């Protein structure tokens, strides 16, 4: 069910389960597995959701849960024998959690850098296309202007042709006598 949105109930269940596990000294991975079984998601998806969203919302509760865990462990250690081996084990767990968080942050930074690069590419492409569009608009405007000029030129030529045709008609009409017989031209009269 890839791409399914997380509901508030799923986030709340994830937060409660992880915080309870931390308070009781358990591992977050076990909490992720427990939640994954209940909501039909993978433990990896639960871990990612915890680190990316829910942990930020529950930052104070998470710190308190860790404090409670440490206090409870210290109390139990005092009641039992407090050994250097157990302290080292606890420090190793803290170190593993730190490395996991650091690796996750490194991955998020890498994704952010990639998205910034893609954004820069998209902005450059947008700029290029905007420039091409403006050039096209200018070209289109120039074509319209030339077309308009050409139409005016054709109209002027047509008007001149009509004017020339009218003057030729008047000249031709003058060569005929009013009774319809052909009038003699000046050259014929002179000869």
TrEMBL record:
<feature type="domain" description="HTH myb-type">
    <location>
        <begin position="1"/>
        <end position="58"/>
    </location>
</feature>
<feature type="compositionally biased region" description="Basic and acidic residues">
    <location>
        <begin position="162"/>
        <end position="172"/>
    </location>
</feature>
<dbReference type="Pfam" id="PF13921">
    <property type="entry name" value="Myb_DNA-bind_6"/>
</dbReference>
<dbReference type="InterPro" id="IPR017930">
    <property type="entry name" value="Myb_dom"/>
</dbReference>
<dbReference type="InterPro" id="IPR014243">
    <property type="entry name" value="RsfA-like"/>
</dbReference>
<keyword id="KW-0175">Coiled coil</keyword>
<dbReference type="InterPro" id="IPR001005">
    <property type="entry name" value="SANT/Myb"/>
</dbReference>
<feature type="coiled-coil region">
    <location>
        <begin position="84"/>
        <end position="132"/>
    </location>
</feature>
<feature type="domain" description="Myb-like">
    <location>
        <begin position="1"/>
        <end position="54"/>
    </location>
</feature>
<feature type="region of interest" description="Disordered">
    <location>
        <begin position="162"/>
        <end position="191"/>
    </location>
</feature>
<protein>
    <submittedName>
        <fullName>Prespore-specific regulator</fullName>
    </submittedName>
</protein>
């Amino acid at each position: 069910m890839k791409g399914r949105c997380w509901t508030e109930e799923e986030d709340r269940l994830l937060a409660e389960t992880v915080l309870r596990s931390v308070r009781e000294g358990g591992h977050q991975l076990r909490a992720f597995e427990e939640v994954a079984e209940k909501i039909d998601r993978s433990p990896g998806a639960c871990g990612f959701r915890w680190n990316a969203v829910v942990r930020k919302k529950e930052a104070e509760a998470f710190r308190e849960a860790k404090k409670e865990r440490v206090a409870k462990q210290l109390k139990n250690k005092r009641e039992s024998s407090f050994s250097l081996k157990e302290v080292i084990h606890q420090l190793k767990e803290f170190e593993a959690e730190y490395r996991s968080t650091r690796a996750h942050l490194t991955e998020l930074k890498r994704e952010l850098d990639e998205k910034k690069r893609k954004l820069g590419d998209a902005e450059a492409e947008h700029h290029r296309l905007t420039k091409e569009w403006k050039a096209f608009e200018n070209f289109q405007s120039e074509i319209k202007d030339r077309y308009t000029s050409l139409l005016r030129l054709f109209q002027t030529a047509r008007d001149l042709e009509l004017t020339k045709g009218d003057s030729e008609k008047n000249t031709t009409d003058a060569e005929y006598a009013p009774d319809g017989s052909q009038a003699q031209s000046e050259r014929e009269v002179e000869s």
